[in-house]
């Protein structure tokens, strides 16, 4: 099971807790227009307080059952994004996802958290490969896996789920042997 907290030089990644619902709501609300082109879940925003707490609690139950881990990204206690490790690609593969609050983009937080979560994912002996997926039109997202040494896989058609997408999924991957760890 993945850890509850992951600490990087600048960030604290902590599993979402129901008490985080107001801060998560505020971060998402402030970032809606920034996230809308790329994140399919934004179409359901804004969630009610009850639904947001339900999302957080469902995520905690999933992790306790050996499933996904959804983390809040914090800098000095402030929520600056969200990220997670997901088992949606099949056995041995972990999908790493992230979003950053609009007021905090361009500071390297997505790269920093992705480096840490890749190391965490490979801490599970069953993880053979970590992947990052993004729509081809989201060119900014390609910089994160590229900078971490992930390999670019083939593009494949994918449905358009968000308004900024062109419907082509880009997959970046790294296997255990290719990951240098925290170095």
Describe the protein in words:
By secondary structure, the protein is of the alpha+beta class. It is 30% helix and 27% strand. Strands 1, 2, 3, 4, 5, 6, 7, 8 and 9 form a 9-stranded mixed sheet that branches. A hairpin with a 2-residue loop joins β3 and β4. α1 packs across α2.
Instruction: List low-confidence stretches.
Output: none
Question: Mean of residue pLDDT?
Answer: 96
Number of helices, counting only DSSP H or I runs of 4 residues or more = 4
What structural class do helix, strand and pairing data support? alpha+beta
Which percent range fits the helix content?
25-40%
Q: Approximately what portion of the residues adopt beta-strand conformation?
A: 25-35%
Number of strands: 9
How large is the radius of gyration?
A: 16 Å
Order of helices and strands: EEHHEEEHEHEEE
Question: How many angstroms does the end-to-end distance come to?
Answer: 23 Å
What is the assembly state of the chains in this entry? Answer: single chain
């Amino acid at each position: 099971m993945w850890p509850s907290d992951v600490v990087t030089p600048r960030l604290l990644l902590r599993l979402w807790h129901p008490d985080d619902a107001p801060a998560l709501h505020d971060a998402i609300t402030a970032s809606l227009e920034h996230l809308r082109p790329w994140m399919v879940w934004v179409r359901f925003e804004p969630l009610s307080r009850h639904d947001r707490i339900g999302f957080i609690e469902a995520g905690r139950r999933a992790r306790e059952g050996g499933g996904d881990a959804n983390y809040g990204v914090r800098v000095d206690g402030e929520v600056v994004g969200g990220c997670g490790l997901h088992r949606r690609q099949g056995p041995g593969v972990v999908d790493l996802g992230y979003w950053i609050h609009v007021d905090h983009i361009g500071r390297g937080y997505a790269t920093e958290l992705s480096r840490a979560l890749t190391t965490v994912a490979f801490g599970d002996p069953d993880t053979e490969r970590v992947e990052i997926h993004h729509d081809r039109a989201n060119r900014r997202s390609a910089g994160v896996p590229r900078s971490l040494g992930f390999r670019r896989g083939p593009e494949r058609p994918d449905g358009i789920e968000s308004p900024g997408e062109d419907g082509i999924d880009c997959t970046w991957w790294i296997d255990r042997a290719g990951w240098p760890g925290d170095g």
